[in-house]
Batch of 2 targets.
Target 1
Amino acid sequence: MRAPVAGSMTAAGEDGPILRTTPPSVYLDQWVWVRLAQAALGKPRESFDTQVLTAVQEASAAGVAFPLSSTHYFETSQITDPRQRMDVARVMASVSLCRTLRSHAVLLRHQLLHAMHVSFARPAFRPTAPEPLGVGVAWAFQGERSSMDLFDASGRVDSSSIPGLRPWLRRVNQLVEFQVLAGPADSEVEELRRLGYRPETVVASDRSRLAWEEFFTDLLKGERMSREELRVRVQARELVHEYMDVFGKLLAEYRVDLWRAVGFDPRRPRSGRPGMTAFADRVPSLRITVDLKVQLFRNPSKPWKASAIHDIDALSIAVPYCHVVVPDSEMGDLLSRSAAAQRNDTRILRRLRDLPDALADLTASAAADRSSAAGAGLLEPGEVFCTDMETLRNTAPHLPKDWHTAPGP
């Protein structure tokens, strides 16, 4: 089976929006990055892992994107061993070039708008899709690009004013992105806390989300219902809990009366269900989330884990936007049952050993367009991704003492 190429149509039928990243892209679950890091250290878990690492590196050099998501940043931060965290982050940075999938908020707003356009004819014109692939942690969490620039007392410094300054600033940004991905060293935590670093807030949010799924599991105990009924309930629950803030604003902005739009008649209970479920199924990420959660809720004996929530977050974006996805075994099984691969025209690999073959067509496609190999400005052809301060010091041009780096506007 050949992997689809850039520009494929996603979602069911002709109603689906075009979501694919422009360069061919491959999403690797966190466990794959860990395996690649072990192979890079000369300690492959399986004999074929070294071959996989080589294929991934060559594909990346040819311009295939291996984007990170916000989930990768969180899961990498949960690695307790600083050395292991650094090793994994180094491989992730050098292969992905810190390319990232855009924040959920930006991508899902467009998906909702497109579903409204198809379902309700508002907006009247097909909404323009945002660029899904960018660079850096700010792109993954905020949906906007942020980079370090050089400043003096009068403001931003022109990077062409000093020979060697522009490539050095690229290396500065590479190192900053790598350090954010790798997280702080133990010796840095105390100082960072004085500056407002509070990792426990993320953990608390994680626990709250887990409790939300466990609460629904408890509600389902002892209640018999069809799969279709469970799916409707999960769909409504997901739409209200995760999407209603932005959805409500879009309905107000385009003056859509939701009950009228979905054909709800107060004299006929459930009359609005067909229209509402059809709308929700036109939101690709929402549909993937619902299908995966329905399958998990159908097995009440299996407890929910935070890792499953993170996996669903990541896959709901990765499957519609990437050409190839390598999930863990459980999520791969659930995705195959939901027909998400066929619906989104995405190749989902169940075995890591199959990745080199899947990369062949994508590499050829990327190599034909050399502009995709530049890493969206963070890496120029022939450069090696900077992951250590020593390299930065050794390549720094001579700068006046009052010049300093800071995030640009």
Note: The chain is about 55% helix and 5% strand.
Target 2
Amino acid sequence: MKTTTNQSMRRQHSYVPHATSLPLDHTPQAAHRARRHTSTTLRGWGLSLALVDDAVLVVSELVTNAYLHSRPGTVGLQLLLEGRQLRISVHDGSPAPIDVTAPCHTSGCDHGRGLGIIRTLAHTVGCSTTRTGKTVWALMVVSGRSGVTGDFDR
């Protein structure tokens, strides 16, 4: 007796989240490493180039803020793709939480617009305190992928 498998049914149940972590030294080069890692990873996961570009900008702002506003130590980047959501998280060793809803500085200032950029590009932004510091995170909606197990046809 020959057994056949319905490919569309298999696809519905084969979704596995994608995740990656990258420890970063507390140096000015951390943002560059994080951007490169994010771009390579998200393209490898089959995300659209527009989403990759937006995510790279969010990562750059989060890692730069961690470098500028936390004490020396390791900064950690985590990317998690689950369903239609990309979670970008940056952990640093500073226990001081940030107000992700604070208004941006005036237009004449060279600094202080990063969180505004992140809020514009992300669906949700937040800050969670941890035993070893804090994690600032951004959730981005993924509208579609190609070439990834568990495409959005479920």
Note: Confidence is low (pLDDT under 50) at residues 1-14, 147-154.
